[in-house]
Amino acid sequence: MKGIIITVLMLTVNQLIAQELDSKKMDRDIKISEDVIASLVKSEADEGEFYSVKVGATYMPDFGVMINLERLGYFSPQGFKSDFDFHWEFNDANWEIDMERIQMDVERITAQADHMAREAEAMARESEQARRMADQERRRIERDVRSEQEAHQREYRQSEEHVQIEEIEVIEEAPEEPRVIVIKSSGDSKNTATEADFEDLFSRICEVYFTDYAGLISQLKPDEKIMLTSKIRGEEGEPDAKISAFVSYKDIEAKNMGKLSPEKLIEKIVYTKTPLIQKKIADLELLASIFQRLYKSDLATTYYTSSPIVYEKLDNYGAIYKMKVYSSYQVGKDNYKIVSQGKTGLTEKERNETVEAMYPAFEQQLKENMVDYGKTLRSLEENESLVFQVALTQCNDCKMPKSVKATIKQSVLSEYNEGKIKREIAISKISIIKGE
Fold it and tell me: Where are the stretches annotated Disordered (predicted)?
């Protein structure tokens, strides 16, 4: 009875903590930080050197805020020709307004406008006729495609071998268009910036952001962090390393309260550089294999996966696993099979209802599996996290999320493995972020 009471109390406390976070305000703070970082790329770059960037940030419970800086392009002043002149020059001669000349010019421009209007009307009529002909051609092509698809379906039903038709989704959800800063020069630009130049720029951005603007993100706990990441390219021009820098939120608060100077805060920035092509880590590799087997169609009770589960180890953050799950496949027109439950002959509506109803069980099983098998991890530090980022099965017009991100601290997994906390307590400490 005592254990049950403690469990209920812990669950209640965790729910209250989650409710304290104003998610809308956090989203606003994050969007402002994205804009600030994009602006700093422009202001901190050397004179005449311009980068185009995409900035994306996300809040991770029990970790803090992760801000990723992705380079899209680079421009240098060498693209301008030597005789290019930005200046307007005016002479000092006296001048006066010739009203008669202006009136003639107005009449001429009016006549030209009338002529252009008549031409525009004629072009509009021609465009409408062309559109109708294009629509007719499009409908003809669609009829041909449907006929071909129906023929393939008839062949498919007659075949003894059924090929699974799975939904295709992108693992990284992006609910909004990212903010992009692009500064272009005229002419052909020559890329003269080195990766060392970009690393220097990255360091300057981090110093300015952490000392002057990181405090714009509120609601973080003292032990959470704000981390900036980006990628460095190798000799062949492809990304081969990830750089990161982070500061604890308690240090940012100390600076804002005058207890820590900007110079001291800069000294507390932790920089790391991690190869993208990493040496396989035995325990992380094993966990990927375990989840790959758990979510195969013959063992799964809700959604399953047929795509490889990949992971990435990021120093000072943890291990991020990415997986894509499915629920069904189509065997004919408005005819679906739910793999894990063996239900066949479902209409699309029935299929969606079943898929949506399975989500709560999938989320619960994901958390249980993270605790049961994640406790075997040894390569994560106590302050790092185990993260599963899952792109969910397609379900049009369903009220279930499109993705889910589950996070648990390594310290929690260690406590459970050592018998210091119950399984239910460990599961309750997993944070869930749903992507719509």
Answer: 125-160
pLDDT in tens, 339-390: 998 899 999 999 999 999 999 999 999 999 999 999 889 999 999 999 999 9
Helix axes 348-374, 410-417, angle to 10 degrees: 70
pLDDT digits (tens, 9 = 90+) for 296-336: 999 999 999 989 999 999 888 999 999 999 999 888 888 99
Regarding whether 355 and 260 lie in a shared domain, the answer is no
In whole angstroms, give the CA distance from residue 107 to residue 125.
28
Helix locations, 95-194, DSSP H: 99-158
Helix or strand or coil: residue 274?
strand
**236, 260, 275 - which closes a domain:** 275
Domain assignment present for 126: no
Residues 388 and 311 in one domain: yes
| 398 inside domain | yes
The confidence band for 21, taking pLDDT boundaries of 50, 70 and 90, is confident
CB atoms within 10 A of CB 171: 13
Q: Containing domain of residue 292, as a range?
A: 282-435
Q: Answer yes or no: do 363 and 424 share one domain.
A: yes
- Where on the phi/psi map is residue 342: left (φ > 0), alpha (ψ -120 to 50), or beta? left
Number of domains in the chain: 2
Nearest Cα neighbor of 229 from 215, 243, 214, 246 is: 243
Closest among 316, 313, 341, 343 to 331, alpha carbons compared:
343
Calculate the CA 417 to chain-centre distance.
32
Query: CA–CA separation, 171 vs 320, rounded Å?
Result: 12
**Where do the H-state alpha helices sit in 159-300?**
195-208, 249-256, 262-267, 282-294
Exposure string (b/e) for 401-428, b if CB count within 10 Å is 16 or more? bbbbbbbbbbbbbbbbbeeebbebbbbb
